[in-house]
Amino acid sequence: MIAKEYLAVLLGMGLVTFLPRWLPLVYLTKRNLPSWLVEWLDLIPAAILSALLLPELVTGGAPRALDLLRPELMVAAPTLLFAIFTKSLGGTVITGMLLYWLAGKLF
Amino acid sequence: MNLRELKHSLTRGDRRSAFSKGVAAAWPICLGYAPIGLAFGVLAQKAGLTPLEIGLMSVIVFAGSSQFIAVSMLSAGASMASIVATAFVVNLRHFLMSSALAVYLKNSDRKKLTFFSYGVTDESFAVNLTRFRESAWDLNSALVTNFTANITWLMATVLGGFSGQFIPAHAFGIDYALIAMFICLLVFQLRGSVYVITAIIAGVFAVFLSILIPGNSYIVIASMAAAAIGVVLKTRAGSGEES
Parallel, antiparallel, or unpaired for β A65-66 and A59-60? Predict the structure, then answer.
């Protein structure tokens, strides 16, 4: 049995997570965007990936604090080099996992 | 542009290849979702949710971080309004991601776009955007990628809800799968000095903001600001910086 309140929470959450995903895709694909907006959007992926990634590598705990000794960061350096030289997504994922696993054994 | 359209129409005709390409692109995402989904299922089950309730949340909401937050808020007895408001704020970053994807999906079928938008996550965004830029990628394959990731997430979360913990946590460095994927996808994005500078500004800014302000709004603020700075730098540098 699903409680009505729980279902209501889910539908509310579903709506507010769907709209930000949906609106830009149905609106922006129908329009010609000004060139500054296209250039800005072109830089968004590099920016957002870096903004997602770096705090995971150099901060930890709750509330977050700077922590430069995390195994996540140590493993990131060789993983980054592997990605730059091989350009292989699958290989990078496997290498990163392997190194992280080894780091866990060592430290 | 002609070549791109040609490729586009060819792949569209070949549904099988769109399917297998989409699944193939999804595997790093699935590898990352499996342990996180299991962990979520275990946590949700401990918070009193049934596997059915867990599965419903994974289908209706389909957003990792806000699902974790919702479960902890539910077990803390938070109000419905506050849970929904939190989910909204936590997932606002997808607005930026969908906007960036829209550049590659001009005049696409509205129904497909709607289904596609449902599956936009940090991970599927990064994978699909990289593929779209490589041009031999179409909305059908992208849809398959999203739904493969979605189904993996659904199954992992429900399995976690059933099983408690029969898979050892942190096995084989699997916790690092998504971080390694993001590292590689970021490398793919760095196609010139403007991209590198923008990424560095965004990363450093995000680190500081993540320490200073609670929640995850640092992602949106840092990336919007860094991309704006990048555009200014690009304009100043003139047309010499075209990729």
Answer: antiparallel
